[in-house]
Specification:
MetI-like fold
């Protein structure tokens, strides 16, 4: 990988994040409704509302508010929550670990299930097994996250009683060590499955199509002509190359994963950033909303950058300047 390519890709991150932040700022401030009424209530007088607007800086022109916000972001300051009166960084920092745990677990589940299924489908394309795996993948991709989450609650949690459906750990428990880890894992199981469903469906189809394409290439025919077993051809020669599209798409799916996490966290009462986002939307807590938009945009852009660089590093067919 050339240094010039790396520098160019890093420089592209700045305008991309800035553009996303500007769009988020415009959407939040141009949305209908008065944030002062949402925060201060509807029973104050004109003087009180004027005081609150001045306190929040809402009496300034919108371009001035934008410049103030960008200056704070540049200095690492996301402001204070209008509703809770706490640092936005502190509020988000308390929720991010739970969302990262949920997102990482769901992604690992999706990879662990999708890759073997994609390989199984590609080994016998257009067979009954391939059609069955494809139908299941299509069903999972079509199922809304909130609907699948409720099905898991009714069919698995209520039906078996093995998995809790609310929170990240048992309320009032003082567990520590391994028992605490197991308790969190029980609470994590169903949310991770609900969030992993669509990612699993996408990865199955990508793995299948990538393997089928690779198995038709000349280097595979050469390996077979040299006497390599079908297992070696599949796992050693075709599968690593077929993973490259999967690697590329993973970065783009991070945004979908975060969007799905909002719904899943609300349904399962998971104490992550998704629930914080919903609460901030309901109360028009603009500093928290803008802080979340900024952090999510940096995360998504960073994930795409990381996958692009990883793809360029492992694939010699990528031509870099």
């Amino acid at each position: 990988m050339s240094r010039r390519y790396l520098v160019r890709r890093l420089l592209q991150v700045i305008p991309t994040v800035l553009g996303i932040v500007l769009v988020g700022f415009a959407l939040v401030h141009l949305a209908p409704g008065d944030p002062v009424l949402a925060v201060a209530g509807e029973h104050g007088d004109a003087a009180y509302y004027a005081f609150m607007r001045h306190r929040f800086g809402l009496d300034q022109p919108l371009p001035r508010q934008l410049v103030t916000f960008l200056g704070r972001v540049a200095s690492g300051d996301l402001g204070f929550s209008w509703v809770q009166g706490r640092s936005t960084w502190a509020l988000i920092g308390e929720r991010i670990p739970a969302t990262l745990l949920l997102g990482t677990a769901s992604l690992l589940v999706a990879l662990a299930v999708a890759l073997p299924l994609g390989v199984a489908a590609a080994r016998r394309p257009n067979s009954a097994r391939d059609a069955t795996i494809g139908a299941v993948a299509l069903l999972l991709f079509s199922a809304p996250a909130f609907w699948l989450a409720q099905l898991l609650i009714l069919g698995v949690s209520v039906g078996t009683g093995l998995f809790p459906v609310q929170g990240m750990s048992t309320a009032g428990s003082d567990l520590s060590g391994v028992p605490h880890v197991l308790d969190v894992a029980r609470h994590l199981a169903l949310p991770a499955l609900a969030l992993a469903a669509q990612e699993l469906a996408v990865l199955v189809r990508l793995t299948r199509s990538g393997l089928i394409d690779e198995l038709e290439r000349d280097h595979i025919r050469t390996a077979r002509a040299k006497g390599a077993s079908e297992r070696a051809v599949l796992l050693r020669h075709a599968f690593p190359r077929a993973l490259l599209p999967v690697l590329t798409v993973l970065g783009a799916r991070i945004g979908h994963l975060l969007a799905g996490a909002v719904v899943v966290e609300v349904v399962f009462g998971w104490p992550g950033a998704g629930r914080l986002l919903l609460t901030a939307l309901e109360t028009r807590d603009i500093p928290v909303l803008l802080g979340l938009f900024f952090i999510v945009s940096v995360t998504v852009v960073g994930a795409n950058l990381a996958t692009d660089l990883a793809h360029a590093a492992v694939d010699p067919r990528v031509q870099l300047d």
